[in-house]
Structures
1.
Amino acid sequence: MSQFDILNHGHEHRFVKGNPSNLNSIFGSTELIPFWIADMDFKVAEPITKELQRLVNRGIYAYEFNSNAIFQAIKDWNLKRHQLKLNSKSFLQITGVLTGIALLIRELSNEGDGVIIQTPVYHQFYKIIQTANREVVRNPLKIVDGRYVMDFEDLKQKLQMEKTKILLLCNPHNPVGRVWNKVELKKLSQFASAYNITIISDEIHSDIIYSKATFNSIVSFNNKHIAILGSPAKTFGMHSISNGFLYIPHERVFSKINATIDSMYLDHGNVFSTFATIAAYTKGEKWVNELVEYLEKSIDWITNFVQNEIPQVKVFIPEGTYQIWLDFSKLNLPNEALNDLVFSKSKLALTPGMWFDKDHSQFMRMNIATPLSQLKDALSKLKIAIDESI
Ligand SMILES: Cc1ncc(COP(=O)(O)O)c(C=O)c1O
C-alpha cells in the first residue's frame, strides 16, 4: 500500500475543487467526483508538515525574510533534478505564478500589443492577457501522429505581426501534457530572437516528468527569455501555501522588474510558505520521486483501461503534469450531450475542453493526482455511461 493510495478527505472540506456551490454552478450538480482543478488530493511530504508544525509551536510571527535561502534551495534543486545551472542573482520572489505573469506582461508590453499562446492552453492565460488590455494571439498546436507539436509555420506568421511582443509558453504544457524537447525550445528561442520577442515560460509543472521525457528550461537557450520557474505548488502539493519565483537572466530586464516588485512590496512572502518551500526543495526529493512513480503507474492503468474498455475515447498520454487530456470526438455527440454523459450520467467533474480553447468542446481534462482507486471508480462510471449511450 502506497501513501498515495489514501484519500485524505471527504467532501465536507472547503477546498475549491469539491465545494458544492462551485460544483453546482459549473457542472449543474453537487454530487460529482471532482477532477477539475489542478491540485492534489495527497498529504504533503513529512518534512513540510514538520516545518510547519515547528513554526506553529514557536508561536512567534515576527518579521522574517529568507528569500536568499529559498533561491539557494531552488537553485540546488534544479541543478540536481534538471542539470539546470542557475544564478542566485537572477531570482525574484512574487506572490504566485499568475501574479508573476500578469506583472511581466504589463512591464514588457503596452496596451494593444499581442501575446502569443499555444492553444489549447491553461485557461487563466486568456484572462491574464485580456485583463491587461493586450490581445490574445493564437498559435494553435497541431496533432501529428497522435501527438501534439508546435506549428512553427503558423508561429512565424504570428511573430511577424507588428503588435506581437511576447510569447507565453507553457512548459510542460497544461493541458496536453507535452514536455517541450531541446529541438523545439531551441527553434522557438531562435524565432523569438529573430523577431525580438520575449518568451515568458511558465514552468510550474517542471518537476512532474515521466520516464520518456526530459525537462529543459527556455532560459538555457537565450538569456533574453524569462522563466517563471514556478513554485513548489504543483511539485509538492502546496497549492495554498506557496509563492511564485521568477528567473530573469537579462540584467536590464531584471532591474526593471525588480524595481516594480519592490515598489509594490510583492516579494515579502510569508513565513509558512518560506520554510515549507525550503523544506520541500531540500528534503522532499524522495517523496516527489515516489509521487511521479505512482502517477506514471496510474497513467499506465488509465491508458490500458481506456484503450480496451472505452476505445471511443482517446487519451493523450502525458509526458509531464498530472493532467490527462481526453478526446471524446469519436462519440460524435453534440456538446450538450457530451456534458450530460460526463457530468450528469458519469457524475465526474472533468474540466471542459472549451476552457482551454473555444474549438475544443469535444475534449476534457482530468486531474489524476488522486488515489488510483478513485480513478478506477471514475472511469468505470464513464464506461457504463458510454456503453448505455450507444
Ligand atoms: C500552467 C499553470 N500556471 C500557473 C498556475 C497557477 O499558479 P499560481 O497558483 O502560483 O498562481 C497553474 C495552476 O493550475 C498552471 O497550471
2.
Amino acid sequence: MTLASKELMKKPLLEALKERPLLGDGAMGTQLMLAGLVQGNCGEEWNIHHPERVLGIQKRYAEAGSDCILTNTFGGSRIMLNRHGNADNVAAINKAGVAIVREAFKSVGREGYVIGDIGPFGGLMEPYGEFTEDQVREAFTEQAKALMDGGADAIIIETQTGLEELGIGIDAAKEAGCPCIIGSMAYDVTLDGSTFRTMMGIDPERAAEFMEERGAHIVALNCGTGMDMPHAKEAIERYKQTTSLNVMAQPNAGLPKLVNMQVIYDETPEEMVKGVVPLMGAGTNIMGACCGSTPDHIRAFRKAIDEKLAGGV
Ligand SMILES: [Zn+2]
C-alpha cells in the first residue's frame, strides 16, 4: 500500500474517538529550551529555521506512542509573531508546523493526527487593552487558515481563560473549514483548594456550555495552576455532566514548585501515570500532558492505556 492511499484511509479524528481513547503529546516549550531555545525567543520560528530540532522533539513523542501531536505554533498568530519581527512569516511558520508533525509520524511508520495549535494572542482586547476584536479575529483566522492549508486534522484553541477570545478562536477555525475544533481552558485551583476556575472566573460548566453553543467539537483543559491528574479528572467529570461533546485533558506533571524563583513541575512518569486509568474511567477521549511532561511520561501513558484497553488492570 502506498503512503498516499494509507493517508486516504485514515479515519477523521472524531470518528476515531468513537472507537477508542487517543493519546496526545507532552510539553513542547521545555523541550525546545532543552534543544537550545533561549527563554523569550521565538520557538515557532524554528519551524522554518531549525525544523530538524522541532522534528527531533516531535519524533520522540511519536516514538513514545502519541496518536495526536500538537503543532509547534502556540505563538503562531500574527500578533504573537509580530513581537519577534516574524509577522511576515505567519503562513510559512504554521504550514511548516503541520508538515513537521506529519514527518514525525511518518518517521515511525504510523498514522497520527496533527492538531494545529493556536495559543492566546497574548494581550487584552479593548476596552482593557490595546487590541481590537477585529485584530484578534483577523490574526486567529489567518493562523487557522494556514494550519488548515497545511493539512491539519484538527485545531486546538488552548490555554484560554476568557470566553471572548475562545469564541473568536472557535469562529476562526470554523471559517477555515476545520472539521474538528477543540477549545481548551487553563484553570487555576482556588486558594482554599476547593475548586478551580480560569483567571477570568470561568468554571468548567460555563466553558462546556459555551463551547457547545459556539460549535466546538471537543471540550478540553490544559495547563493552569495546580491542575494535576486528579484535578483534571474532576474537570472532565464536570464537563461530562454538562455536555455530550468529546473531552480532552492535558494536565501538568504534578503541582507547581518554586525552585530558584522559577515555577517547575517535576512529577515523575511513574507518579503521573497513576492518574491515567482514572482519567479514562471518567470518559476522557484524548489524554495528553502539559508543563513538566516529557516523552517518558507519554510512553508510560501509552503502556497504561494499552493495558487498560486490552482488559488488564
Ligand atoms: Zn502547561
3.
Amino acid sequence: MLSRLVIVLGLVLLPFSAVAGEPLCKRLGGSDAVSAVVKSFLTKMRKDDADKLGRFWLYRGDDGVAREEQLIVDFVQSATGCGRLYVGRSMSAAHKGMGLSAADWNRTAELLRTTMTEFSVPADLQTEVLDLVSTTRGDIVECEAETFGCK
Ligand code: HEM
C-alpha cells in the first residue's frame, strides 16, 4: 500500500520537479523570449529621463548602442542557461567610472520588473531573474547614494 502511494505521489510530482529543474532560460520561454524582454527593458533604460538612467544614452551613436544591446542579450542568455556564449567585458570593466549609485540600481531593477510584468513573467520567475541580476551589483554600483549618480 505504502509503495503504491509513493509511486502515485512520484508520478504526480514528476512534472513539477522536471519543470523546476529546467534552466531559467527555458522557464522564461526560451532564448527569443529572453531576448525580447531584455530589448524592451533596454529601450526603457534609454528612454528614461535625462536626469535618471537616460543620461547614459544622450549622445551615443546607433552602432554602439546596437552592439551594447547585443552584448547584454548575450550576457543574460548566457547567465540564464540559454547556452549562449558571452564574449564581452567583465561587469566591473564595462561599468567602471560610470558613477552608478544605489538609486540608479533601484531604478534599473524597477524598469526590469515593469518589463517582465508587461511580458506576463510570473512573480516567482521575476524574483529569480532579479536575484540573478543582483549578483552583478557589487561590480556595477560605485556608491550607495540615494540620488542618481555618484557625486
Ligand atoms: C545599473 C544600471 C546600468 C547602467 C546605467 C548601465 C549602462 C551601461 C552602458 C552605458 C554600457 C555601455 C558601455 C560602453 O559602451 O562602454 C553598458 C554595457 C554593458 N552592461 Fe550595463 N548598465 C547597467 C547595469 C547593467 C546590468 C545590471 C547588467 C547585467 C545584468 C549590465 C550588463 C552590461 C553588459 C553585458 C554590457 C556590455 C559590456 C561590453 O561592452 O563588453 N549592465 N552598460
4.
Amino acid sequence: MERSIGLIIVIAIVTIIQIVAIIYAAHLIRRTKYNLIWILCIVGFLLSLVHHFLQLFPREGHTIDSGLFIALDIATSLCIVLAVLFANRLVNYLDRLNHQRALFNKRIMTAVLRTEERSRSTFAKELHDSLGPLLSSVKMSLSALPGENLNNEEQELLKNTRNIIDEAIRSVRELSNNMSPQILVDFGLAQGVQSFITRIGALHKAKIDFQTNLRKERFDNDIEVILYRVICEFINNSLKHSGCSEITISLQLNDDTLKLDYADNGKGFQPRSVADCGMGLSNIVSRIDSLNGELDIRSSKGKGMQATVIVSLKQNLITTKPKKRWQRRLR
Ligand SMILES: Nc1ncnc2c1ncn2[C@@H]1O[C@H](COP(=O)(O)OP(=O)(O)O)[C@@H](O)[C@H]1O
Ligand SMILES: [Mg+2]
C-alpha cells in the first residue's frame, strides 16, 4: 500500500509538470511559425498523461491490457522524436536569420564607411581648392607690397605675416592630405603608406621599417582606403601610446590575399581590456570586418604589440553566400 501511495505521488508530480509543459507549448504555437514542433510535443505529453491517468485510476473490475500501455509509449516516443526532427528545421531557420542579420549589419557598416570616406574626400577637396587658392592670393598680394618704404618694425610685421600665411598654406595642404590622401588615390596603397611613414617619421624618433612586395598594383578602392587607415591607426597608436623605438610593417601580396604584419617594441597592453573602449581599435575591427578580413591583435604588458591582417582580394565586400567564417581575435 505504502509503495502505491509513493507511486501515486510521483505520477501526480509528473502529471503536473507535463500539464505546465503543455500550457507552455500551446503558448509557443502562436509565437513561432514552426508550430508543428509544439503540436507534436503537446500530443506526446497528452498521450503520456493518458498513460498516467490509466495507471492512477484503473476502472474497477477492468484490467488494462499491457499492450495498450506499450502502444501509448510508442506513440509518445514517436511524437517526441518527430518534434526533435522538426526542431532541427527551427535551428536551421534561426541560423539563416542570424546570417542575414550579420549580412545586413555588414552592409550598413560598409555603407557608413563609404559615406564617411566620400565626405572626407569632398571636404578635403573643398579645403584644398577653396581655402588653398585664397591663402595663395593673400601671399601674392603681400609679396606685391613694396617693402622699401617700411620701417624696421613694419618690415618685421610683414615678415611674420608672410610666415604665418606660409604656415597656414602648409596646414591646409596637410589637413586636406590627412583627410583624403591624394597619393593613395593616385599611386595606390604602397606609395600612400610610404608617404604617411615619411611624413610621420620626420616628427618622431621611432624607426619605422616598411617592407612590401607591392609595386604599382591597384586594388578595390575600399581595400586600399581601409588598409591605409588601419596601418595609419596602428602607427599612430604605437607612437602615441607605446613609447616604442621601433615599428616593423610588412605588407605582402600573395596570390589573392593581402597580408599585413605589424609590430612595435613598446610597452604593450591588454587588447581585450580596451576592445570596447578605444574608438581607434574598434574602428579597425569593424573596418576589417567590412572587408570579410581576418584580424589578430596580440599584445601583453612589456612585450610590444603585434597584429596580423589578412584580406582576400577575391571575396566580395558584401557576400550573399553563407559567410566564410571571418576571424576576429584580440588576445
Ligand atoms: N601599440 C600600442 N601600445 C600600447 N598601448 C596601445 C597600443 N595600441 C593601443 N593601445 C592602448 O589601447 C587604447 C585604445 O586605443 P585606440 O582604440 O586606438 O584609442 P585611442 O588611440 O583613441 O586611445 C589606447 O588608449 C592604449 O591604451
Ligand atoms: Mg588610436
